[in-house]
Specification:
single chain; 322 residues; alpha/beta; Rossmann fold; six-stranded parallel beta sheet; six-stranded mixed beta sheet; 11 helices; 48% helix
Length: 322
């Protein structure tokens, strides 16, 4: 009798394991491919993607290039996922042209693609999930104009050629500044590059070349931090009006200390979560909005501790573990 029960238990156990294995194998696999994996912004995007994955019982495979200027690496990641036959791809292209071909190939293989964070010059996407970047740039320009009472000499340190999201921020900034005749843009054609180190070098050169500058805008986390370091080293942090984009612990510390006047904030958790949700809805045959706006806000020293801003500055990343 004991042997019979053990045999029965073994059969039941094997059946359950097989069933669980089948369920796991049936779970949809969603590849989420960020521009890079080093900046704080991407950790928040990853957390949002994982939040959606748990809620919708899908598997998110997170993989992207280490640096945000490595087009070849991001193209290879997309191509690898196409070969693996994932159920869908969320792509955050670091170049609005270079990533068109691999996205088109995925679509041709029957793999739907949602574009997140930064746009792609390609119309076959399921949806585009991102910040209204032009609006964020206009907010930065308006804030600098307010801080300078409509009079002053400005620098725009751009991010990287081919990055659609930051190009939109830069365009919005210049549009806002143009509405104030008393503001003069001294330089708007220098690029920070993808790393803090290259941003710091460009910032040093700009501060040396334009010592009369009174206001500065930088359109992403790494360019903002590179400029902050250059201003600190030049002893000018806090005396030059400075608006940045995105946040990290050091940027928030500088905001509190008055070395940064304002930070334009996205909602990267929402970008990751809503992009995955849009893709799953599409796979389920549901209609999906072609453009999903994830919001944009302005953080200042005065509102940094208000609930909505605090949540954006310190998102809950515990879902990632570690």
């Amino acid at each position: 009798m004991g042997r019979a029960l053990r045999a029965l238990a073994l059969i039941v156990g094997c059946t359950l394991l097989a069933t669980c294995g089948q369920e796991r194998s049936k779970a949809r696999r969603i590849a989420v491919i960020p521009k890079g994996t080093t900046h704080e912004f991407w950790k928040s995007v990853h957390a949002g993607a994982e939040r959606a994955a748990r809620a919708l019982a899908v598997e998110v495979i997170w993989k992207g290039p280490l640096k945000e200027d490595d087009r070849t690496a991001q193209i290879q990641v997309v191509e690898d996922f196409v070969v693996r036959g994932v159920d869908g791809i969320v792509l955050m292209p670091l170049d609005d042209q270079a990533l068109v071909a691999p996205a088109r190939e995925a679509h041709a293989r029957g793999i739907p693609v949602v574009i997140g964070d930064s746009d792609l010059a390609w119309q076959e996407r399921v949806s585009f999930v991102a910040t209204d970047n032009a609006r964020g740039g206009r907010m930065a320009g308006d804030e600098l104009a307010r801080r300078l009472a409509g009079q002053g000499k400005l620098i725009l340190m751009r991010y990287s050629e081919g990055s659609a999201s930051t190009a939109e921020r830069e365009r919005g900034f210049l549009e806002a500044v143009a509405a104030h005749p008393g503001l003069e843009v001294l330089s708007s054609n220098q690029y920070a590059g993808a790393s803090v180190e290259s941003a710091y070098e460009t910032a040093e050169n700009l501060l040396h070349g334009f010592p009369e500058v009174e206001g500065i805008f930088c359109p992403n986390e790494s360019s903002t931090f590179g400029m902050l370091r250059a201003l600190q080293d030049a002893g000018r942090a806090g005396s030059v009006r400075f608006v940045g984009f995105d946040a990290s612990q050091k940027l928030v510390e500088a905001l509190r200390a008055g070395q940064i006047d304002a930070l334009v904030l996205q909602n990267p958790v929402a970008i990751g979560e809503l992009a995955v949700r849009a893709l799953v809805e599409h796979l389920d045959g549901q209609p999906v909005e072609p453009r999903i706006d994830t919001g944009v806000h302005l953080a200042t020293r005065e509102n940094v501790d208000a609930a909505p801003i605090r949540e954006l500055l310190a998102p809950d990343l515990s879902i990632l573990g570690g």
